[in-house]
Each structure stands twice: as structure tokens, then as C-alpha cells.
């Protein structure tokens, strides 16, 4: 059951996010974990973890199962959609998750290793024809040609939506087995190579050498840089800058795990998640 407003919204269901969630739940806080279809791809890939205390020689996948079971035993809500844009107004955060808005009094960012752009010139064209949420920016592209790059099937409804309002929609899936997409959408099977344009996006060059001319380009479902999720977030050496209380430069926003810096390790993530969960709980209690 969704609450009108949560005390903590935790972005990411890896070790850091789940640790923050169980610690805040023990503090009797209303918690939601904004997750993903697969929680913690890195831990899932780890063949053998030898350095997590109490679990010698455990497969990453099995350790992740234990973490998930722990969270489920405490009835912690976990969404299977990632967080999109976040806005703050008078101490309340509104988070776009799929087509839903979730509200919270504090945020813990636990989104894993720093953001890797999908296209080399993403930074350069961001806001100049390139975006991360087609349903949010859609009206700007009404009657125009757009191309959407999807990292997972979660992006398909955005292509369907754009087909309703755009002159021409191209969809380039970066995964196998895409589903039933609106028949007006043209599927592109080549890889993206580079963005074409001077000041604004004018098209996308593909790996087969062809260029598709479009005015709007969307990268959907990839890792979104945390400072793009929450404007004004301070980044240092590609990681979210935090103090020893896991506080960021923004009031009510905490960060934990790989996203705050090396070593990229489970124990560090779990420890920082605990500190973030407890301090976010104190922050919310102080405000109530
Ligand atoms: C092959 C391999 C072997 C490893 N071996 C070890 C080892 O032996 N020992 C060890 O300690 N560590 C090991 N690690 C590292 C360990 O897996 C990571 O340090 C740990 O998973 C980090 O946890 P985290 O919670 O910070 O991030 P992650 O586990 O990466 O979880 C972050 C989650 O946030 C999600 N996310 C991203 N953006 C959003 C968003 N906008 N909204 C919601 N969710 C979002 C991601 O999809 C992901 O599910 C290994 C990693 C790899 C890849």
C-alpha cells in the first residue's frame, strides 16, 4: 500500500539501499526503496565474496538473496521502477517513478557506481535536444521527429507515448527481445555511434554508418547521474560528496555505498547505508 508521504525514499536496492531501509524501519520510519528490475547487478555478478564478515566464500547472488529476504521479512516496500527526476518544495521531495509521483521527507541515494554515459557527447547535448524522460519533455517535441534509446523494456511505453504526439518516432533497443511497440514506431537494430549537431541535436549516427535526422533524442533506463536526478547535488571526483554522517550538501539528502566513492565493497556499502538510514531518520524526527 502506498503512503501519501514517506519518511525516507531510498534510491537503489543494492546493499547500501537495503541497509538504510532496514535501519530506518527499525526506527519506525515509513520507508520506500525505489529499486530496479534487478537489484544490484554488480553483486549479482560476483562469483565469490570472501570478505563479507560471517559469510565466507558466498556467491554474490546468494548474499543478495539474503539481503532481499531480510528486507522482505520487514515488509519493506520496493518498487521495480527506477527513480526519475526529483523535485524539492518546502522540505518535501517528489520523485517520478514510472508514471507515479512518490513523496518523501528525506532521500537516501544508493544508486551504485558513478554514472556511465551511453553516448560520448551526452553531457554536451543534455537539455539541447537530449533528455532522459520522454513523457516529461514530450510536449516540446510535438509534431517533430525523435529517437529513443532504451536500455530495457521499461522504456517501451515511452516510445508508445511519443508515437501519439510526434511526427516520427524511432526506437533503438539496447537489449534483446523487445516487446510489442506501437506500429507507428520504427525499430532501429544498429548500435548508436555519435550525436550529430552543432548547438542542438540534429541526428544520430549509427554503427552501420547511416544517420537518422531527429530533433529530439532520449536515453531511457540507463544510469542517470545523481546530480541530474537532484539538481544542485555536489559531486567530487565523479562521486557524491558526503560527510561522515553521509549528509550531502542538500538538506534531507543522504548518500551511501559505491556512489560516494571507493573502495567499492559490500561492507562499506552496508555500513554507509546504516549511517545514512539512521541520520535520515533523525532528520525526519527533528522536522516532525
Ligand atoms: C564482478 C564483481 C565482483 C565483486 N566482488 C566483490 C567482493 O568480493 N567483495 C566486495 O565487498 N564487493 C565486491 N564487489 C562490489 C560490490 O558488488 C559493490 O561494492 C556493491 O554491490 C555496492 O553496493 P551499492 O548498494 O552501493 O550499489 P549497487 O549494488 O550497485 O546497487 C545500486 C542499485 O541502484 C540501482 N539504481 C541506479 N540508479 C537508480 C535510480 N535512479 N533509481 C533507483 N535505483 C537505481 C541500480 O540499478 C542498482 O540496483 C564486486 C563487484 C563486481 C562487479
Summary tags:
26% helix; 7-stranded mixed beta sheet; alpha/beta; globular; 288 residues; 5-stranded parallel beta sheet; FAD/NAD(P)-binding domain; single chain; 2 domains; binds flavin-adenine dinucleotide
Structure description:
With 288 residues, the protein is an alpha/beta fold. The chain has 2 domains: 6-115 and 224-287, FAD/NAD(P)-binding domain; 122-220, FAD/NAD(P)-binding domain. The chain is built from 8 helices and 17 strands. The strands form 4 sheets. Strands 1, 2, 3, 4, 5, 6 and 17 form a 7-stranded mixed sheet that branches. Helix 1 runs parallel beside helix 3 (60-73) and helix 1 runs parallel beside helix 8. The structure holds flavin-adenine dinucleotide (FAD). Flavin-adenine dinucleotide (FAD) binds at residues 11-17, 34-36, 39-40, 42-43, 45-46, 49-52, 82-83, 110-112, 223-224, 229, 257-258, 264-267, 269. Flavin-adenine dinucleotide (FAD) binds next to helix 1, helix 2 and helix 8.
Amino acid at each position: 500500500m502506498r503512503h501519501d508521504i514517506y519518511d525516507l525514499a531510498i534510491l537503489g536496492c543494492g546493499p547500501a539501499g537495503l541497509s538504510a531501509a532496514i535501519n530506518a524501519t527499525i526506527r519506525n520510519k515509513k520507508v520506500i526503496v525505489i529499486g530496479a528490475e534487478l537489484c544490484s547487478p554488480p553483486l549479482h555478478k560476483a562469483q565469490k565474496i570472501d570478505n563479507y564478515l560471517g559469510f565466507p566464500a558466498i556467491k554474490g547472488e546468494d548474499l543478495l538473496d539474503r539481503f532481499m529476504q531480510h528486507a522482505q521479512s520487514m515488509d519493506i516496500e520496493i518498487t521495480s521502477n527506477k527513480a526519475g527526476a526529483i523535485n524539492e518544495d518546502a522540505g518535501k521531495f517528489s520523485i517520478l517513478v514510472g508514471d507515479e509521483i512518490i513523496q518523501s521527507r528525506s532521500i537516501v541515494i544508493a544508486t551504485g557506481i558513478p554514472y556511465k554515459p551511453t553516448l560520448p557527447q551526452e553531457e554536451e547535448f543534455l537539455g539541447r535536444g537530449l533528455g532522459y524522460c520522454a513523457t516529461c519533455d514530450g510536449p516540446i517535441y510535438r509534431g517533430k521527429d525523435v529517437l529513443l534509446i532504451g536500455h530495457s523494456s521499461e522504456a517501451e511505453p515511452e516510445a508508445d507515448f511519443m508515437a501519439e504526439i510526434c511526427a516520427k518516432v524511432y526506437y533503438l533497443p539496447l537489449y534483446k527481445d523487445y516487446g510489442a511497440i506501437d506500429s507507428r514506431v520504427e525499430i532501429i537494430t544498429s548500435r548508436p555511434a555519435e550525436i550529430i549537431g552543432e548547438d542542438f541535436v540534429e541526428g544520430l549516427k549509427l554503427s552501420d554508418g547511416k544517420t537518422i535526422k531527429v530533433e529530439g533524442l532520449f536515453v531511457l533506463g540507463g544510469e542517470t547521474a545523481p546530480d541530474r536526478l537532484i539538481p544542485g547535488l555536489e559531486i567530487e571526483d565523479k562521486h557524491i560528496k558526503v560527510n561522515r554522517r553521509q549528509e550531502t550538501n542538500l538538506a534531507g539528502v543522504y548518500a551511501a555505498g559505491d556512489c560516494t566513492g571507493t573502495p567499492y565493497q559490500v561492507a562499506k556499502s552496508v555500513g554507509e547505508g546504516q549511517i545514512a538510514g539512521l541520520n535520515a531518520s533523525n532528520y525526519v524526527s527533528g522536522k516532525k
